[in-house]
Amino acid sequence: MTARRTRVKICGIRTVEDAQAAARAGADAIGLVFYGPSPRHVTVEQAACIAGSLPPYVMAVGLFVDAPDAQVREVLSAVPLDLLQFHGSETIDFCMQFDKPFVQAVRMRPGVDLLQCRGQSMLSRPLSRGLLVDAFVPGLHGGTGQSFDWSLIPGPLRGEVILSGGLTPTNVRDAVRQVRPWAVDVSSGVERSSGPKGVKDPGLIERFIEEVHLADV
Q1: Is the CB of residue 65 less than 8 Å from the CB of residue 88?
Q2: For this structure, is 134 an active site residue?
Q3: What element of type H or E holds 88?
Q4: Residue 111: how many CB atoms within 10 A of its CB?
Q5: Which among 124, 164, 177, 212 could disulfide-bond with 128, CB atoms 3.0 to 4.6 Å apart, if both were Cys?
Q6: 127-158 confidence digits (pLDDT tens)
Q7: Candidates 18, 134, 185, 201; catalytic one
Q8: 93 three-state secondary structure
Q9: 189: DSSP letter
Q10: Which residue ranges form the domains of the chain, and what is each CATH number?
Q11: pTM to 2 decimals?
């Protein structure tokens, strides 16, 4: 039986060059961050250029954190997004109002019931496309570079979730083999260690995706 291929999203893309490098390396999706406090934040104009530069079958995902609905609509009117990703405390009703496929992030901490979260997500099909499971770091929403205990993901959810949080070319092979997620989402783990924060390293992107493919063998 042929192994299922784990999908890869490279998040926090800020330039056309980085988006195209991710696509050439085999990324299935790139993430555009519309959250002002993030060093990976992009303007609507930047995002439109980046999304418009993508080749066929590479998705553009817009990431929001407790944004006003007017901001989300403004972005959607100008940027050809394929999927929305909500990383704050957005309700299901809020997420569904844009009539666009979306995923919701769940930050793992004591008391989080992923099976209950999955049940709520299933009720909002077909717009809700699943859960992204990330590390919990107080005051931060993604791109933290912190991982969490992957064994906290219940068996019934393995194969469904999008795994995020502290993934790097060094640990992603183990993560995929342990969790067998539908997809992995990386941001800080493929960035340059020197210079401005948030700048992607094409070599690290290639290594990351190669390690994911090796885990699928």
Answers
A1: yes
A2: yes
A3: none
A4: 4
A5: 124
A6: 999 899 998 665 554 555 677 888 888 888 88
A7: 134
A8: helix
A9: G
A10: 7-216 (3.20.20.70)
A11: 0.92
